[in-house]
Amino acid sequence: MADHVDYSRRHLTFGWWSLLVFATLGLTLEALHGFKVRAYLDASNDTRRLMWTLAHAHGTALAIIHVVFGLMLRVAPDTTARSVPTISTSLIAASVLLPGGFFLGGVAFYAGDPGIGIALVPIGAASLLYAVFAIARGVTKSTESNRRAR
Q1: Which of 12, 39, 96, 144 could form a disulfide with 70 if both were Cys (CB 3.0 to 4.6 A apart)?
Q2: What span, in angstroms and rounded, lies between the C-alpha atoms of 42 and 38?
Q3: In this structure, how many other beta carbons lie within 10 angstroms of the beta carbon of residue 3?
Q4: Please, are residues 66 and 22 in contact by the beta-carbon 8 Å criterion?
């Protein structure tokens, strides 16, 4: 149980700090838009605007997933007991690679194509899919074993 509390705290902390970072990114993007900053709004920078918006959206969603996962570990600690370390690593990797890849893809881009940072996105997406699959599998097994116990 102590391990789950540590993982729970890790994901609650990571999630709330990530939410602050990505909400700040969103506010910054709004400011760039509001002040009509050409490096962000010019038609030639559509790729940058799209990539940075995707970074903000994915980062915010992943932050919320961390908070939900942290709370789930406190409410139902046995649900994913054996897989928690791997799920934790995968969720954190996804939260760095997915929005990070989008953001870096918008820093430098070439003829409308995202920069090399975009290569991180599929790795982050695969990490996220694994984590979600492992959580869903754990919840399903836990639900089935609870039904049998009744």
Answers
A1: 12
A2: 5
A3: 12
A4: no
> Does residue 149 belong to any structural domain of this protein?
no
Query: Residue 148 corresponds to which amino acid?
Result: R
Dump pLDDT digits (tens) for 81-121. 889 999 999 999 999 999 999 999 999 999 989 999 999 99
Cβ distance 3 to 77 under 8 Å?
Answer: no
Token pair, residue 44, equals: 């030639």
Tens-digit pLDDT profile for residues 11-68: 999 999 999 999 999 999 999 999 999 999 999 999 999 999 999 999 999 999 999 9
Q: What range defines the domain where residue 106 resides?
A: 2-141
Number of domains present in the structure of the chain: 1
Distance CA(98)–CA(127), nearest Å, equals 9
